[in-house]
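Quality-control log, excerpt.
Job 1 of 2 completed; input and output follow.
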Amino acid sequence: MASSHSSVSQLERFGQAFPNCSQKVGIRINPGVGSGGFSGSTTGFSKTNVGGPSSSFGIWHELVTDGTVPSVVDKYGLEVERIHTHIGSGSDPSIWQSVAKTSLSFCAIWDTVTALNLGGGYKVGRNPDEKTTDLGEIGAPVAEAFREFAKEHGRELKLEIEPGTYLVANAGALVTTIQDKVSTKSSSDGHIFLKMDAGMTDVLRPSLYGAIHPITILPASGKSADVGTSTESVVVVGHCCESGDLMTPMPGEPEALEERALRTAEIGDIAVMDGSGAYCAGMSTKNYNSFPEAPEVLVDSEGKVHVIRKRQTLEQIYENECDVPSGVF
């Protein structure tokens, strides 16, 4: 099983466990810059930026170039087989290309390196105005850099990427109902709120990152003829007793409401939140307010529906809870 180490202390402890036996290791390096999400900074903090001085992920690049990491490797007779960098989710293609070239310089430090993992973070356009990363466009100069490395160092490296979100983000949708509709409108301000029978317990990205997901309102009847053409500006929220359970934040600002023009909805209508195939079910605030995990279904290429995760029962939510011994209170 391959191991990857993201700090000097991890590498040191691994070396202590497997000294002088040419144990193969991977090293994750923080290249000094990051990129991702709604942040325009390559060095500042962002929840989706995992590189640069404001990120804890990876060994700081100066500890590699100043000899600190090579000395640990030599001390324990480790064999570095893989270098790993990852700078953020939704990263800028130009920055990604620059980091790829920097990462190749780390591979040159050890002639035992056979693979460079450049992570993921390829931007996926979930909304009509968002552009999806062209892998061919950003990959061409990186491929050329790999060829130049092979020519200079006499060895070819295997390129590894982690395109999970890129592949499945738009392959999933949250389907729920509008369970309530309330208004705080007055002559000067206020909003119309659509309350879904779902929320941060199913899709956390809007509440956590200020991520924007497309939402479509469909009639409860299920008939196309009932879709209608009237729209209204609304704020969509989830079912949790939590003011942060917000499905329509301002872009990159989870603390700020933003109205969205949607088809005029009635209680019982269906709401579909697209772009929910990645970092949604797996990152949800499971069982918050004792809401059960929602069931999941797979629609195959022939349009047939298969249940791939059953709805969680109430008993399953609390089955790991234990009685408090008498006398504790």
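Job 2 of 2 completed; input and output follow.
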Amino acid sequence: MVLSLFLAISLASSQSLGGDIYSKTELNQISRFFFENVDVDGTGAVVASPSKSHPNYYYHWMRDGAISINIANVVLGNETCMPHYVSWVLKVQGTSDPNNIDVRGEPKFFMDGRVYNGPWGRPQNDGPALRAIALINYANQLIAKGRMQEVKDTLYSTDLNKPGIKFDLEYVAHQWQQTSFDLWEEVNGHHFFTKMVQRKALVIGAQLANRLGDTGAGTYYQAQAKSMEPSIQAFWDASSGVIKATMTPHGGPQKYLDLDSAVHLGVLYGYADDGFFSYTDSKVLSSVGKLKEVMYSDGMYPINAKDDQAKIPGYLIGRYPNDTYDGYESGSVGNPWILCTQSLAELHYRAAKGFYSMLNDTSKHLDEHSKLFLSPLLQSYGYAPRSDESIHLGIASMALVLEGDALLTRAKRHLNKLHMSEQINLDSGFEQGANDLTWSYGTLFGALDARKKAIEAMAGSV
């Protein structure tokens, strides 16, 4: 009875709140902003931002481009951009590198496909993995339509030196033990985000290789993915209850507890649907809880307190504590990021669906880290279980949806006519940094897609 009542009230509230966050007209406008940056002029290139000065983001970053094209194709259903993206990838994979590294480790390209030749943090080994993931998803779509030969002819060659999916998978399989720069391009080391997306690329790459009859490669990729797992598990710091973003010691910015939004981003883009660091993993939830504590409860960003006073639900988060990049230059004070906040909403929605799927599985039990994360969340939405009472996963799932809605609501509060920049000023709440950041838009669509799936999974409860 308690569950039915709570779900009925919360689901109605969530449907209303979700519907009020963005109207269909608003989402259509945001989609137009997003696609202005994707498959620019039919080249397949994805521009990080149209901003050409202060800061200049008018480049194709392999990471941002792969994440964004995957959103365009898988989430928004725009498959028409994929042949152009394939052509772009095949071209840049075969480009000579002016920086004397393997071109697959290059993070940044001019919009005409030339490798960026200025000083930069190289290599960045998440790019080939994320690019492989996007292309593998497309290959599976083509195979489902009976176009396997097209995949073999264009996307996946057994020739180790021919551009395509396997070209990137080979790089990942042979380079995952090496250091590289992180997704924020500041720290050279071993990173949770990078290793998670590398592992996913190898897991789903092995599945594709086997489907295409390249079973030797499939076995090798799966073995490499398995070999990665102890090194990924080592990022967990039980003493702080946090998955460290980078293995210590490391150079570059020294982060409090090595706490970083890169962790939940790594789970979102790197979870391979096989139980390894899933959305409901207690270590992931513990890290998310600590991120909220440090960035919100401890008052890191004054704008959160102002929004609280104005009764705006949710909270804003940034990249990591003691960030010094303000969107224009380092050596300043970091701000909340739109993409970090909206991706955290997606994590909540995906955790909601995950917990709900366990509802009737008596073998599933919450450990202390999960309870420490969920208990205050439940209390904030009006349900306070007794200390001797187990947390009901159905109620927890609904609270997670409500929390995701609150995060999206708080982020929208600070948009200027629905445009999404990189950052939100920690004091004024106005947007700053690169305007119309493609990745920012993508995180909204990723979150709303996850929300829809979570709500649909729970809708039969009432």
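Post-run check on job 2. Residues 14-18 have pLDDT under 50 and may be disordered.
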